[in-house]
Each structure stands twice: as C-alpha cells, then as structure tokens.
Amino acid sequence: MPTSSRIFDPVATAAWWRSGAEAPWLHGEVARRMSGRLEIMKARPRHVLDWWSSRSASRELLREHYPQAELTAVEPTDAARDAWIAAQRRPWWSPSHWAKGPSALAEPQAGAAAAELLWANMVLHWAADPAQMIARWHQALAVDGFLMFSCFGPDTVQELRTLHARHGHGPAGAEFVDMHDLGDMMVQAGFADPVMDMEHITLTWETPEQALAELRTLGRNTHPGRHAGLRTPRWKAALLEQLAAGASRVAISFEIVYGHAFKGAPRASAGGETRVPLADMRAMVRSSQRPR
C-alpha cells in the first residue's frame, strides 16, 4: 500500500474528535458546493457512505439527492460512532422515532460496505497518511462505485502562516497536501479517471476575536512542532493586534480541493501465476459482459 506520511500529530486530531464539536459552518458550505457536482453521476446509488459524518455536515444534502438510498455514517472510532447514534435519537412520541434512519459504523468495518457512493466532505486533511485513507475508500466501494471528496489545500490560512512566521510564533498548523499529489494517490489506490480541481474561499470578520473563534471550530494545530504548553494572555493580546493590523476587517483564505473518481473493475496482471480473489473475479466477469 502506498504511504504518504505527513509532518502531523494524530494525537491533536484525536483530541478534536473527542471534543464532540459540531460540524463547522465552512464544512456545510463546501458540502453544498460539492453536492452540485453529483449531477455528473448518472447512476442512482443504493448505498451511500458518509465518511466521518459527524463533521461532514452532509447528511441532509445526501438524503435530499438520494432519498431511497441506504445512508451509512462512518466514524473514525467506536466512541465517535456511539456519539453519532446518540445524537440521532428522537423522543418515542416523535414520528421520526419510528422511521428508519441512517445507520452508523466505525471505520475499521467500512471495508465490507461495498457502497456505490462514498462521500468524504472535509475529512482527508485530518489523515496522517492520506494515501492509506484513499486506499481504504477504494476498499469500501463496490466496482463502478463513485468517490467524491473535498479537503483543505496548501494555501489554506496562508495569512495566518505568514503572520506566525514573521513574529516567531512557531508553525500555525500542519501543511496540507497538494491536489496533484492527491490525484497520484488516487491512481495508486486503483481509482479510474480521477478528476481534481480547487477553489479559494475567503472569509472575513469584523474583529480578530471573531476570526479566532471561527478558526477553532475548524480544528486544531496538528503540527508536532507547535508551541508546547499554554500561551500567555500577553501573547494572545499581541496576536489579536497583529491580526487586526492594516485592514478594516480580518480576512483569511482557504484553498478547497475537490476530487472524484470511479472504482473500476479489477484487472488480473499477466505473469507466471496470478491470484485474484473470487469476489474480484466475479466483478471482472460482470464487467466483461456489459454491453459496450
């Protein structure tokens, strides 16, 4: 399996997931924009995986697009899955209590799901090894299944990174992966016809306090070389002054990377001996029997 380890602290990521914070506003906006790309999918998926659903802000969008599909939330840990299930509970007297709702499972079990659509909104930048994450997505999809994801790109919070470097504050956060590298990882994982693109979204706030409050909803500093321990009130006051300097509003930009691809039928390679799992062999036979 290809690897792509980053300079990244997974402990900080785990702490954010344990915090139980709601999906940030920006995640919901990116989900809305990405949902417009679902029109390129001609097939109607019967089983949809919403990867790391509690921060995806996508459940209602996916339900709107595919009301008849089985929607499964995938969470990174058993604890996150249990918290997601608890959040979906309705009072016994509510009509929605008796309706069949989305199911949830922990990520290690997701490989057996065989979904026709795997949707991963704003989660890939939380992976210490993006290539391994993409490979797990490939395993979770059925043949001809469709992957659609979004994540932060390298230009994200560049203003904050520049400010930290100028004033010696240490790294503002872990580096994000370039979309061309992500495309290569998709090919290595076995995806067919990957398409990558990106856009920049700039958010502005009236005060630096508002800016920092919103940035906290987007995660944590996962760079292992970040400042150890707590900062002082004097340092925070200086940071707020630096953020507010030279402009009427605080502006911070985010690079949003989008990717989508199909999982093609497995191919048996030529050689002295080739071993192909029975399920993959059946998929190859079905693919060869489709009308051209």
Automatic annotation (TrEMBL):
Domain of life: Bacteria
Keywords from the named record: Methyltransferase, Transferase
Alphabetical list of InterPro entries matching this protein: Malonyl-ACP_OMT, SAM-dependent_MTases_sf
Extent of the signal sequence: none
PANTHER family in the cross-refs: ARGININE-HYDROXYLASE NDUFAF5, MITOCHONDRIAL
UniProt name for this protein: Biotin synthase
Taxonomic source organism: Caldimonas mangrovi
